[in-house]
Amino acid sequence: MTASLSQGEATAMVIKAARGFGLSWGLAEEAGWALCQLGQFGDDPLSWFDRAFSESTENCPITIGATVMDHAPLVGSLAQKGGDLGLIRMPILLIPFLRHSAQLVGHRLFLCETTSGLRVDVSDDLGKHIEHLSSIFAGHVVIEVGAHLGGDQPSKSKAYRFQTSKDTLARLDKLGSRTYVPETEASRMSGAGAGASDND
Amino acid sequence: MTQQTKHSETPMVALRTPATVMRLDRMGAAHPMRLSFLRILLRRAQRENWQFTRTEWNVDDKGVGHAVYQARGPERTYSLIAFAHDLPDEDRTDRVIATAWDATFTLFDGIPSEDDIHRLSQNVPHQEAGRISEKEICLSRANRSVRLFNYVVGKLAKGEQPDAEKLFEVGYLMRTTAVYGSGKFGAVDYSAIQHREELQAPFQAEMLTVWLIRWFAIDIVNHMAKCAGAERAADLDPLLARRLGVGNSTGLGMAPFLVRHPYLVDAWITARETALARVRSLNACGQEAKTGFLTALAEAIENAQLWNTSHPLQITRLADLRNDLSLLDNYVHTFDWDTKMPWDRLWIWGEQHLSIEGQEALLSLLLEPHGNIIDDLASNLSSPLEEDTKIDGAMTVSELKKILNEHFHWAVSTNFQDKGENALFWYVSEEKLEPRIGRVGIDEGHELEQPLGIARLISNLSYDVETWNNSDPIAAFLMRHPEHRLAVKRVQQSPLNPYGEIQDNLVGKDTLPIDMMRCKLAFFGASRFDPRSDKWVRISLFQDMPFPYQLVRE
How far apart (Å, rounded) are the C-alpha atoms in residues B275 and B267? Predict the structure, then answer.
């Protein structure tokens, strides 16, 4: 069984799941932004987040991706010189952060996964690599610097629909539910409108 | 600090500062105005000669069935599909816990086929428990006013008109309890349709939905009267109908919006404040503008008299407003309209003599007759996608501190050691997935607090960043302190969005969520703000305004 979600729904779901997974609210929002960027590649980006959020927050592609992106404009940064990122869970989720970093520094960046030998220009059309990239649950990632990027403008977010399985939704929902507070009788009584007649 | 207007404007009179206008008490005194979203919709529909038609009415004697209303603009058609239900009185509640309503609606993008209507009939009546698709823009529901609906049906069924006073006391036949848009429950995302000229101003699809619901409310009351009274029955007098709006009942769900969208809030407030500055900067007052202002003042005085509320705080504010409008009425009748910059003189007098309620009402009155110089600001009410704004990791700690000093004194100076400043927390209820406010130390769930206490987040950031070297980059700070990422982003955004932050502590013991709601609802164009508690309000939309089918005749 599959479900079709609006981008707003999918984003909200990923933000809550990221927070439930243990990321800060600011990083959780970055996860939501990354989902929107990945929507253009079709397939099932929600399932990639589901897999990334399945174990501990170590080797998290959102935390590491955001850190690479934050440092990109600094002299000698990994986005400027290239370097070894080490083991990353679901490295496909690095793509939005590396694409943005490439725009910031003005040259191409290559995501290289050493075990499989995959080498991807993150600013390129990634269509043909998506299946392979999304299949890597954990990979050793090295960033390489390429040629000048040219006058490309940062891509604007567009609205995409997200198709995913009910199982993926259920798992992300479960993570997101860690951010909810169960109602108590007391909270029900102090909620908006409680105790007042609204049927008039 | 003087705010410069955007778009290279330099009015003679400075805009009011964020420190003045972004306070909760003043936001909680906001009034609807020319740039309110429903007014923008009405002007566009009139200007572009939109055509409105009820294309389907398939409702039985019990009031069960569906209807379709079409709004045809120059490029596109939108259709409200209304599902009418027979709801027992005991099942009727406005709260989000409800599972059934008197009527449910969706705004369809285009003209629905029979298959579309069938599909929607299986989902729209269930609201949150159903699913809509990218063909739909909004999802909504409404309940009948128990005070009024059956009374009006009874009168009309006998061929009589309802008592006007009783009608105006309530002000609506039906009350929406939610109007969802922007991707909710499967609907199309706003970002997919915001390029359409008619949807660029905020919440235009939602306003169109409510406007068409108002039409449906009149149709269903006339229909029920006909079913009860047959040939004897009368239709509701159009003049009486026009005095009725659509009620709206709103809880806490609306309040966090203003915190979560600083770019958008900045755009709204900047447009309003620019409009005020333009009017104040006028050198002279024409006869037409003077007449328009005095007419608007007379209407405001009448509206304040008809405005009912039972909430102690709003009763006080309403008393202030009535008193202020009376003072203003006296003053303008002795005012020297030939003086230089008369509108500015009037405004300055208002600042010196009126309460906050009166001042904000005066703002709306000043804007009213000046559409020719302010209506273009409607196109400035949108904002770029906030999600696309990224952290500037190269910013130094020193630069961040400078912004904190210049823009966040209100947050950094709050003493969060004081329990009163940490009295509340915002959370999401597991039961209904809606925002709630809990009391620290009393209610459970503080550890699951939502990041809406911006003042405290900024204060914590300021404390931690203090120990870092001024030359350190923010990227390094965030690697060590990912918990401050959200606050850093807001700080970095703030110089470009000076009106983006509510400059009050939203977790302090005195916080009134209804202040946030009133600000947002005033931008919608809502009137008759009537808090039922400090977390829940009722308002009216489109009251005294034309119905869609009346628009072209005006």
Answer: 12
Q: Centre a 10 Å sphere on the Cβ of residue B58 and count the other Cβ atoms it contains.
A: 11
Phi, psi dihedrals of residue B145, rounded to the nearest 5°: -75, 120
How far from the centroid of its chain's Cα atoms is residue B487's Cα?
26
Judged against a pLDDT cut of 80, whether residue A194 lies above it is answered with no
Burial class (CB in 10 A: 0-12, 13-18, 19+), A185: exposed
Q: pLDDT tens for residues A6-64?
A: 999 999 999 999 999 999 999 999 999 999 999 988 889 999 999 999 888 899 999 99
DSSP code for A44: -
Query: In this structure, is residue A138 part of a structural domain?
Result: yes
Alpha carbons B338 and B340: distance in angstroms, whole number: 7
- In this complex, the residue of B184, B385, B445 whose CB is nearest that of residue A157 is B385
Distance (Å) from the alpha carbon of A159 to chain B's nearest alpha carbon:
5
Closest by CA position to B220, among listed B52, B65, B93, B114: B65
The amino acid at B144:
R
With respect to residue A197, please indicate whether it lies within any of the assigned structural domains. Answer: no
Residues counted in chain A: 200
Residue B24 CB-half CA count within 13 A: 16
Tell me which residue range forms the domain holding A171. Answer: 2-148+161-180
Mean pLDDT of B351-357: 97
- Name residues 39-58 of chain A within 8 A of B (Cβ): none
**Predicted local distance difference test score (pLDDT) of residue B387:** 57
DSSP summary character for residue A196: S
Residue A75's closest chain B neighbor by CA? B394
Cα first-last separation, chain B: 44
Instruction: Provide the pLDDT confidence category of residue B432 given band limits of 50, 70 and 90.
Output: confident
pLDDT digits (tens, 9 = 90+) for B363-403: 999 999 999 999 999 999 998 656 578 999 999 999 999 99
Q: Are A136 and A113 in contact (CB under 8 A)?
A: yes
Any idea what the Cα angle at residue B170 is, between residues B67 and B50, rounded to 5°? 40
Q: What is the dihedral of CA B443, B446, B450, B454, to 10 degrees?
A: 100
pTM of the model: 0.94
Q: How distant is the Cα of A148 from the closest Cα of chain B, in angstroms?
A: 21
Domain assignment present for A83: yes
CB atoms within 10 A of CB B366: 26
Q: What is the mean pLDDT of chain B?
A: 93
Q: Which candidate, B304, B299, B303, places its Cα nearest to that of B317?
A: B304
Q: What is the pLDDT of residues B247-306, one digit of tens each?
A: 998 888 888 999 999 999 999 999 999 999 999 999 999 999 999 999 999 999 998 988
pLDDT per position as a tens digit, A111-162:
999 999 999 999 988 888 999 999 999 999 999 999 998 765 555 557 899 9
Q: How many domains does chain A have?
A: 1
Rounded CA-CA distance B39/B475 in Å is 45
- Write out chain A residues lying below 8 Å of B188, CB-based: 6, 159
Residues 6+ apart with CB under 8 A from B147: A200, B170
Which amino acid type is present at position B104? Answer: T
Q: What is the DSSP letter of B187?
A: P
Q: Does B188 contact A73 at a Cβ distance shorter than 8 Å?
A: no
Q: Concatenated DSSP letters for A104-168?
A: HHTEEEEEEETTTTEEEETTS--GGGHHHHHH-SEEEEEEEEEEE--SPPPPPP----EEEEHHH
Q: What is the pLDDT of residues B181-202, one digit of tens each?
A: 999 999 999 999 999 999 999 9
| Structure token pair of residue B490 | 């807001």
Tell me if A56 is assigned to some domain.
yes
User: Chain A partners of B474 at a C-beta cutoff of 8 Å?
Assistant: 70
Query: In sequence order, which ranges of B431-473 are alpha helices (DSSP H)?
Result: 454-465
**Window 160-189 of A, Cβ < 8 Å to B:** 161, 177-184, 186-188
DSSP B201: S
Q: Does the predicted interface ipTM exceed a cut of 0.90? A: yes
